[in-house]
Specification:
The protein is mainly beta. Helices cover about 0% and strands about 55% of the residues. The chain is elongated.
């Protein structure tokens, strides 16, 4: 068992029967009364962030997480299929566990975090930027590029992304998976 002295950012602990990541913490020693640790905890499964105060020295249960690289194969409805590139073991994740499922392209590499005690997947990290091809967009009007205007484009994965007017069908673009924003055109 560890104590609050072992707190560090990114540490995963068991709290109220669930797994939480320490986002930030601060040891406080008031002039009167016992010391305490003020924390912000992020739920590993839901992503919800809560503030919590621990009495200094209280016992905590640290959990081990193992990250493994997987390749995205395909999806059938809400089940996404991934393959471990080292031992070819396959695992399945619900659509809700993946941050931007409609930006995932077959063959894309992701990192899946597993809780080592139960060997169950708890989180999926996809690349920050993905290169996708535009399959449909309205043609841009000539001379209409003085302002910073955007139009919608449908990507090869089915996602809709706002792109500048000069992007055409067949162009490959880089998309930010955190915000669904256009980043740049990919040079071939």
């Amino acid at each position: 068992m560890a104590t609050t002295a072992d707190f560090r950012n990114g540490l995963i602990i068991e709290f109220n029967g669930e797994l939480w990541t320490i986002v930030e913490f601060q040891h406080v020693k008031p002039g009167k009364g016992p010391a305490f640790v003020r924390t912000k905890l992020k739920n590993v499964k839901t992503g919800r962030v809560i503030p919590n105060t621990f009495t200094s020295g209280v016992k905590i249960n640290i959990q081990r997480i193992e990250k493994r690289n997987y390749q995205y194969l395909y999806n059938d409805g809400d089940q996404f299929h991934f393959m471990n590139t080292e031992d070819y073991e396959q695992t399945f994740l619900d659509k809700a566990m993946i941050p931007a499922p409609d930006l995932l392209k077959e063959g894309e590499m992701v990192t899946i975090a597993f809780h080592t005690e139960t060997d169950s997947p708890i989180a999926c990290e996809i690349p920050t930027y993905v290169a996708l091809e535009v399959v449909y967009t309205e043609p841009g009007e000539k001379g209409n590029t003085a302002t910073n205007t955007f139009k919608e484009a449908k990507m090869e994965t089915g996602a809709i992304v706002k792109v500048p007017l000069f992007i055409n069908i067949g162009d490959k673009i880089k998309v930010d998976t955190r915000s669904y924003e256009y980043s740049e055109r990919v040079k071939e």
